[in-house]
Amino acid sequence: MENKNYKERVFEVTQLIPRGRVSTYGLIANYLDLGSARMVGWALNKSLLSNGVPAHRVVNRKGELSGRNFFPSPTMMQELLESEGVAIEDSKVQDFKQLRWDPSIELEE
DNA sequence: GGATTGACGTCTG
DNA sequence: GCAGACGCCAATC
């Protein structure tokens, strides 16, 4: 029973995201070679049931907080990011291009 | 077990 | 640059 599902890998990578930074589904999917960014989003959906998984640090490629609706409160995701020093406007990450954390690069694979 | 859905991404028009 | 369609793989109905 290999509990090491691709989901757990997503959890680990998500937890590796530094505070004040954000990542995208595509980057994580590419790093884990899942083949589909949807897998990351789906896995993160399950991550809501797990503790210690800062899913709020993961956004789509546009930097939009697409998953905010899945949180207990749609504003909680933004609040958390702002609390970490990430500027949010209109449910989108400001300077996202700078703040985006790419595991394939930061971890240098 | 087939069909649908999903926190996305890339391509084409 | 924006809008629509397709692809992706897994889970759920």
Number of domains: 1
Output the CATH homologous superfamily: Winged helix-like DNA-binding domain superfamily/Winged helix DNA-binding domain
Question: What is the chain-wise order of helices and strands?
Answer: HEHHEHEEHH
CATH fold assignment: Arc Repressor Mutant, subunit A
Count of β-strands:
4
* Structural class determined from secondary elements: mainly alpha
Distance between the termini: 27 Å
Uncertain runs = none
Largest sheet: 2 strands, parallel
Gyration radius, in Å = 13 Å
Shape type: globular
Mean pLDDT: 91
Helical content (DSSP H or I, runs of 4+): 40-55%
Indicate the proportion of strand residues. 5-15%
User: Can you list the strand order of the major beta sheet?
Assistant: 1-2
Q: Please, could you describe this protein's structure?
A:
The chain has 109 residues and is mostly helical. 42% of the residues lie in helices and 7% in strands. The chain has six helices and four strands, in the order αβααβαββαα. It has helices at residues 6-16, 25-32, 37-47, 76-83, 96-99, 103-106; strands at residues 23-24, 58-59, 88-89, 92-93. The protein has a two-stranded parallel ribbon with strand order 1-2. Helix 2 packs across helix 3. The protein is globular, with a radius of gyration of 13 Å. It binds a DNA duplex (13 and 13 nucleotides) through residues 6, 24-26, 29, 34-46, 48, 55, 58-61, 65-70.
